[in-house]
Amino acid sequence: MDIRDGLKKAKRVVVKVGTSTITRPTGGSNLVRMEEIAREIAGLADEGREMILVTSGAIAVGVNRMGLSERPKGIAERQAMAAVGQGVLMHLYGTMFASYGQTTGQVLLTKENSLRHNQYTNSRNALLAMLEMGVIPVVNENDAVSVDELKIGDNDTLSATVASLVDADALIILSDVDGLYTANPQDDPNAKLISEVHEITPEIEALAGGAGTAGGTGGMVTKFEAAKIAMSAGVTMVIARGDRVGVMREVLMGQTVGTVFHAKDAHLRARKAWLAFGRHIGGNLTVDEGCVEAMRSGASLLAAGVVNVDGEFTAKSTVRVLGPDGREIARGIANYGAEDLRRIAGKSTREIAAILPETAHDEVIHRDDLVMMV
Predict the structure, then answer these.
(1) Residue 58 CB-half CA count within 13 A
(2) In this structure, are residues 20 and 212 in contact, taking their beta carbons and an 8 Å threshold?
(3) Which domains does the chain have, with CATH numbers?
(4) Bridge partners, 321 (sequence order)
(5) pLDDT attached to residue 212
(6) Which of 69, 237, 295, 334 lies 20 to 30 Å from 25, alpha-carbon distance?
(7) Residue 56 in contact with residue 18, Cβ under 8 Å?
(8) pLDDT given at position 295
(9) Mean pLDDT in each 10-residue stretch from start to end of the chain (374 residues)?
(10) Residue 62, phi then psi, degrees to nearest 5
(11) CA gap 25, 42 in Å, rounded
């Protein structure tokens, strides 16, 4: 089946709208576009689709409500603006969706919700219960209580995590661009829109630019990270232009709109998805080709195949596993911290026992804690 035709059958759909889509350049809410989005999502819900909205814009709306000329630079001040803006956004969305006969529910997630497996599971259950009740969840990062830089919780990644959480069929990211281009269309008049991406290769990642508009924190880099999450979780992802009226319906009618990222056939099970995408990445392990083939056959990652350790992390941290060409092969929970791993990289199990007699493990990453990404 053609990937676009498959979108016609998408039952559970996550839609992410960026700051630039729902706010004006002056910082105020773009009420006309918000109402159009609410009407379109409500119409799709009326047709029997289960819809989830992930929205950015809380900080920008808070800044505008408080009459500030620019986003504050301090974390505490931005958290305050998020708290103000989130209330405004939810009131607007709630009123707009209600006018089309739909009930919304606010869901605020934090990094901790994904780091802890029980909270990850509870978040999933709550979202599924809302969908079962016919409620449209409106999701955002809980920026008002986040302790990290807010960019850590960019909503491209959040939307893909939500899509993975609820086993969505499709993720539509509405942005200020039409999709992925062969070059920056603002600089190169010959840039071509890429209709389909089957795999996130180093060549594809090289097409990513920096952060997006002044009001947002996204850009193609974060959308690629979202695509990795969605594709590995069996979710078809589409990047499309957010200011285009009816774009969500066009995507779900199978029309050639934006850039579609092909989902992998095998869905990650809930715990595997959490291992891969719910936890902070502590560092990278580069392994040799023999190790790559062994992992693809279902083996654990052994120290003998590790050729380089990048980053500083402790035991039980999640790390990326890179192949000899630098391509991400897998993610998993390391039994060793970075310092110990550097001492045992390339060593046999017998050698490890002599180097680290008190902390020796047979595997650097056990196969039960390992998720293949390709």
Answers:
(1) 27
(2) yes
(3) 3-271 (3.40.1160.10), 280-372 (2.30.130.10)
(4) 285, 330
(5) 42
(6) 237
(7) yes
(8) 93
(9) 88 94 83 95 97 92 89 86 91 96 90 59 87 95 56 73 89 92 84 90 74 48 87 90 94 95 69 63 94 93 95 91 91 92 92 84 86 80
(10) -65, -40
(11) 26
**Residue recorded with tokens 């959040």:** 158
CB atoms within 10 A of CB 183: 13
* pLDDT value, residue 265: 66
Query: What span, in angstroms and rounded, lies between the C-alpha atoms of 73 and 60?
Result: 13
What is the model's pTM? 0.74
Both tokens assigned to 15: 């839609």
- 61 backbone φψ class: left, alpha, beta (φ>0; ψ -120 to 50): alpha
Q: What angle, rounded to 10 degrees, do the helices at 155-165 and 220-232 form? A: 10
Given this model, what pLDDT does residue 98 score? 97
**Residue 45: what pLDDT?**
97
Placement of tokens 């095998």 in the chain? 266
Contacts for 21 with CB less than 8 Å, ≥ 6 apart = 30, 33, 37, 174, 175, 176, 242, 243
Class of residue 73 by CB neighbours under 10 A (exposed 0-12, middle 13-18, buried 19+): exposed
Contact 172, 251 (CB under 8 A): yes
